[in-house]
């Protein structure tokens, strides 16, 4: 079952964007989710930033999955970023991050949260899939690619 594709829309799939820091990326994601889900950007930023302070959400291979629990959020929400300038993320392999999936889950969504994170790790662990993500020409193409993925 693909839990990731339903989280993406053309508005939350950003290709070839650039940020000067991880903090700027989190600020952008917080504003994006605030607009698309009617949440407070400050709550989202705080959740993402606090989680990152516990330890890097970078997986290696240029991938990061920043995530946070948000009070008042009804369902999981996601945003995909393909960065034109890789960001330093304190990854285990010391590689900067180029592909980033920001995941928000409701405050109490423990099992769903873990299922989505596990699926994201599988998706990004697929070397061929990572290559195709870099080649996707549009947000719609990237969403179709993720939707067609079966793990």
CATH superfamily: Mannitol-specific EII, Chain A
> How far apart are the termini?
8 Å
Count of spatially separate domains:
1
Q: What fraction of the residues are assigned to beta strands by DSSP?
A: 15-25%
Pfam family, one: PTS_EIIA_2
Organism: Thiobacillus denitrificans (strain ATCC 25259 / T1)
Protein name: Possible PTS IIA-like nitrogen-regulatory protein PtsN
Domain PTS EIIA type-2: 6-149
Describe the 3D structure.
This protein has a single domain, classed as Mannitol-specific EII, Chain A, CATH 3.40.930.10. It is 43% helix and 23% strand. It is built from five helices and six strands. It has helices at 22-37, 41-54, 110-125, 127-135, 139-148, and strands at residues 13-17, 58-60, 63-64, 67-70, 77-87, 97-106. It is globular, with a radius of gyration of 14 Å. This is Possible PTS IIA-like nitrogen-regulatory protein PtsN. Residues 6-149 form the PTS EIIA type-2 domain. InterPro entries: PTrfase/Anion_transptr, PTS_EIIA_type-2_dom, PTS_SugarTrans_NitroReg. One of its GO terms (molecular function) is protein kinase activator activity.
């Amino acid at each position: 079952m693909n839990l990731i594709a339903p989280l993406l829309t053309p508005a939350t799939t950003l290709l070839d964007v650039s940020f000067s820091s991880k903090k700027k990326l989190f600020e952008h994601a917080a504003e994006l989710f605030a607009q698309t889900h009617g949440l407070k950007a400050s709550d989202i930023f705080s959740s993402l930033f606090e989680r990152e302070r516990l330890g890097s959400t970078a997986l290696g291979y240029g991938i990061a999955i920043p995530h946070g629990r948000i009070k008042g959020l009804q369902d999981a929400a996601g945003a995909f970023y393909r960065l034109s300038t890789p960001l330093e993320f304190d990854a285990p392999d010391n590689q900067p991050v180029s592909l980033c999936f920001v995941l928000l889950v409701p405050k109490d969504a423990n099992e769903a949260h873990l299922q989505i994170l596990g699926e994201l790790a599988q998706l990004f662990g697929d070397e061929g899939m990572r290559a195709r993500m870099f080649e996707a020409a549009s947000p719609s193409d990237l969403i179709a690619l993720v939707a067609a993925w079966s793990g």
